[in-house]
Every structure is written in structure tokens, then in C-alpha cells.
Amino acid sequence: MNFSSNDHLENGDFIWKFNFRICIFGFCRGVLEVIYNFLN
To answer: What is the pLDDT of the chain when averaged over all its residues?
Structure first.
């Protein structure tokens, strides 16, 4: 697999889109944000 900077940006974009969808179900500022902040 090719782990380029473009792949990283696409994965990050997916994470935020997924986090937004979870937010609709009442998990805003929840687990995904904590994990994302921890990984950074």
C-alpha cells in the first residue's frame, strides 16, 4: 500500500465526516474526537 500524505488527508477527512454523522446521533465531542486528539 502507498501511505502518502494525500492518503492521510483523505483518512482525516473521512474521520471528520464520520464524526459529524455520529454527532447527529448525539455523540458530538465524543469518543472519535478524543481518539483523534490523542493521536495528534
So the answer is: 64
